[in-house]
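for the writeup, i need someone to sanity check this before i put it in the appendix. the sequnce is what the collaborator sent (i think, or maybe the updated version? ugh). structure was predicted straight from it, no edits. if anything looks off just tell me and ill rerun, i have time this weekend
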Amino acid sequence: MPEIAYRVLMVDDEASQRALLESYVTSQGYVAETVGSAEAALERLAQQTYHMVLLDVRLPGIDGIEALRRIRADDEQLPVMLITAHADLRQAVIAMKGGADDYLTKPIDLDELGVAISDALGDRAEEGPAKLAAPPLPDGFICESAAMRRLVETLAIVAPSDAPVLLTGESGAGKELAAQLIHR
């Protein structure tokens, strides 16, 4: 059965910074992917599931604060950490009010980054980047949107637990298919 590792998307317009972040995040056992613009990041987020985003504030085109706003409009739970070379208290306040999980300054202290990633990923990261088994999908289950992929991954986390799960929604929303994924 395939395994899903924690995926981190890093967004920075400086190639050297992307290389540093990618090297460090990969060395910690996470799957690291990098892009050079907010537009590219938003496109990736629409196509793939990530467990965290590291986002530079000053980017060409859409800046990090606007990208954060757009990410939050689509997904309120995805951890997003902002990184900047130009520390500005007002900007930090705007970022945190906008839903940033953390606000780090360059040059990045890699130990601080590691702690911030663990904190942002919460309980899942306490055991390191543990692998989760991807559940087999029942026949007829369509999983093309980012939201559905996140739901399937969440169900994979919940499935091995003995905790009761309450599925709610309108008729035809897919509660029965979700239950099948949990009980397989």
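The domain at 3-126 is CATH 3.40.50.2300 (Rossmann fold). The chain is about 45% helix and 15% strand.
thx in advance!!
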